[in-house]
Amino acid sequence: MKIQKNSKKPLIYYYAVVIVIMMLANTFLLPMILKKEISPVDYGTFLKQIESGQVKKVEIQDNQIGFSALNEEGKEGLYITGRLEDPELVNRLYSANVTFERIIPKENSPLVDFLIYWILPMVIFTFLGQRFIGKIQGKMGGMGNAMTFGKSNVKVYVEAQTGKTFADVAGQDEAKEALQEIVDFLHNPQKYKEIGAKVPKGALLVGPPGTGKTLLAKAVAGESKVPFFSISGSEFVEMFVGMGAARVRDLFKQAQEKSPCIVFIDEIDTIGKSRNSGGLGGNDEREQTLNQLLTEMDGFDADKGVVILAATNRPETLDKALLRPGRFDRRVPVELPDLRGREDILKVHGKKVKLAEDIDFNAIARATSGASGADLANIINEGALRAVKFGRRYIVQSDLEEAVEVVIAGYQRKNAVISMKDKLTIAYHEIGHALVAAKQNHSAPVHKITIIPRTSGALGYTMQVEEGEKVLMTKEQALDKIATYMGGRAAEEIVFNTITSGASNDIEQATKIARAMVTRFGMSEKFGMMALETVNNQYLGGDASLIVSAETASKIDEEVLHIIKACHERATSILEENKEKLHDLAKYLLEKETITGEEFMTILA
Ligand code: ADP
Ligand code: MG
Ligand code: ZN
To answer: Which of this chain's residues are annotated to bind Zn(2+) (predicted)?
Structure first.
């Protein structure tokens, strides 16, 4: 945890302030509030005031008399006087119509005094102080935990609060089926007990970010109608050593009291990292937390009805002990949605907004290959925002189409200043991509070409959309893809006889594909089907590390270079052959700024 400088004075400081305030209050403030001023007067004055009818109430004690009387201003004041031998007093009071009431405050016992003057304010100030400090720390980002000393702030969600069901999760049919068993068990544990079946204690949801892992866990709780304890792995990592372990203990204690219930540990990789991967000396705190988690998981009886769900997008880093039978022995993959899945997710989120009747979700789904559920939810929302911006009462298709581009490439930068010369270069560059793609047999059709810059930094782009869902990539398709990426730079070379920095992203993407062809797909002649690389984190961008000697590594680089060069040459020759079309299309694009795939094909034909 980052400790900010100067931002937090030690607790003792606050308590010192409180004590000083309390002492001042006790000496000056409280007596004024609690005790009304009582003025001593002599007996003669008392008698005179009775005569003149100023005295209203009287209390006679053994050696003193308290009374209330109207003073000169006509206000009632409290007075006290000594008691003398005066047998006529009672009669005189009667004839003056005085009432007998309590006037002199009773002396409190020292204990009561102590409680009122010292303990009560202390309690009040401490309470206020805690809340105040808690608030400040809440703003400072969760430091409030420092004061809860090992008590985990586990949130308890019950069905009414998660409010999610499997109907909210679209397109994850396999995952839902796997989790349905857990729901059934929580509904009906007897059925499983009778036959002697052991239900898994824990299930691990694995998949890329934004695919709905957290959503699925909530849906399981919603479907089962049981309490849902949810905690994120990062919340276990505490300021003080030993806190994480204490929290785990506390969490499981709470869960067992509330069973049947679901415990959900989100981002479990933050505590569940392999214990020997810590590097320098490891991380004792995390290790303790993990050990406690393992102990707790072993310690409780699954029959009691506590099911543990966890989610991660880096399953490869998890400690093997976590995955042993009896712990997270069930793995539920939550993958990126396919074409139908994307369409279903769009529909689920589309229900929450107002849509035009002719919305074509399929077209949007086709244009968003590789998007996660979170991306798609975001697209619907961006579309709704755009509809509002244009004063519509519902979302139309073009809102969603623009939203796709916003999510992929950022917002349009309509007033970015780009010189005419640069615009021309960008137009040729984009048409270069599109032409190469169109003239090859294995590339996806061109959907849209634009030279309106986006906030992501893209100065223009060519959007291709596959007809259907492709799960495999052939070697020909891979090569065509690389050639398409090369098309931008090739067009610049042909037309301007110079090159620009505009192709940097193309180069990166092309190299990635070429490299994967050689090292992972077995698509190069030189290495054939030899595995040269291993993927480190399949769900997070899938960066890979070489598993070969340095010598082989340099040969791999040569082979990658060879592939890219060949594709570059092919792109150049395609453009040379269609030079006239290149000029026509580039001029058209420059004028229009955005053209559709159909316009493009009409001019090309
Ligand atoms: P993860 O935990 O896998 O990173 P989340 O469960 O937090 O992903 O998903 C984020 C949001 O994306 C959800 O709140 C939901 O709106 C949307 N979403 C993701 N996957 C789906 C899906 N399969 N169906 C419907 N909405 C989804
Ligand atoms: Mg999540
Ligand atoms: Zn490009």
So the answer is: 429, 433, 506
